[in-house]
Amino acid sequence: MTNYLDFEKPLAEIEGKAEELRAMARANSEMNVEAEAGALDRKAADLLRDLYKNLTPWRKCQVARHPDRPHCRDYIETLFTEYTPLAGDRAFGEDDAVMGGLARLGDRPVMVIGHEKGNDTKSRIARNFGMARPEGYRKAVRLMEMADRFGLPVVTLVDTPGAYPGKGAEERGQAEAIARATETCLKIGVPLISVIIGEGGSGGAVAFASANRVAMLDHSVYSVISPEGCASILWKDSEKMREAAEALRLTAQDLIKLGVADRIIDEPLGGAHRDRDTTIAAVGKAISAMLDELAKKDRAALIKDRREKFLKIGSKGLAA
């Protein structure tokens, strides 16, 4: 069953009619509806192209949050082999919002870390909807430092509305944990590749994405705050999220101009959720290409490359 976004309602009606016709034909073998259903399919394909031809920033936010979009676990299970999960921060406990472990990408050993939102009610609650607590960030620090000791490239998959703002998380040092993870990203001497696969929200995303190379899926978003949060602060009205999304410049296309992102990974027409396998394969190809770019750099060059990248952010897009 396809989950349609608000702006896709006209598409839902057309595709629904085509499916109804085919269901009637399956129930009555004497009916021949293929010509009419085919015409509806073509109309739906044209409408899908029109809807996705020029998505507004707010609509890109909606697509980035689509519940059927492939999540971190899907990428790990499909792209990586010999995945060995590593748990716990060795200080407080395990955080299921953050996945991480040793794996192979092709014949290359790597450390892979990412936010996991879950794919149904039970798993979303268990994963805290991808919002990590301090122990999640401290686990990520532990894994990055381990990768640094053994000379393994680090791949991070970012998909979070932001770090969890609950009382317990604050009591256990949420801000310090995020800062420590960001610092670790910047100081390790191995290649660090980050891909924004859905939402890149606030410091919770930066803590995983202070990388040598940052790639974004075409309809992913990356910003300091959600459009709803921004609208609530600036206009005291969360319903102004469309205006906030425009102002935040959170799309992959805007962030390439600002130097925050380095590469856009194309998504299938209609978003990653309409062709998950193609999307995951494209992400794997991009990760391999970025790792190849960094393979010849030594420790000092990697750290310098990362530092210079972040010092330059925004400089080439300020006049835009």
Automatic annotation (TrEMBL):
**Domain of life per record:** Bacteria
A Pfam family per the record: ACCA
Q: Which GO terms describe its cellular component?
A: acetyl-CoA carboxylase complex
Question: Which molecular function terms from Gene Ontology are attached?
Answer: acetyl-CoA carboxylase activity; ATP binding; carboxyl- or carbamoyltransferase activity
Report the record's Gene Ontology biological process terms. Answer: fatty acid biosynthetic process; malonyl-CoA biosynthetic process
Q: Which reaction does it catalyse?
A: N(6)-carboxybiotinyl-L-lysyl-[protein] + acetyl-CoA = N(6)-biotinyl-L-lysyl-[protein] + malonyl-CoA
Cellular location(s): Cytoplasm
What does the record give as EC number?
A: 2.1.3.15
InterPro entries per UniProt = Acetyl_CoA_COase_a_su, ClpP/crotonase-like_dom_sf, COA_CT_C
Name of the top EC class for this enzyme: transferase
**Protein family according to the UniProt entry:** Belongs to the AccA family.
Known function: Component of the acetyl coenzyme A carboxylase (ACC) complex. First, biotin carboxylase catalyzes the carboxylation of biotin on its carrier protein (BCCP) and then the CO(2) group is transferred by the carboxyltransferase to acetyl-CoA to form malonyl-CoA.
For this entry, the protein name equals Acetyl-coenzyme A carboxylase carboxyl transferase subunit alpha
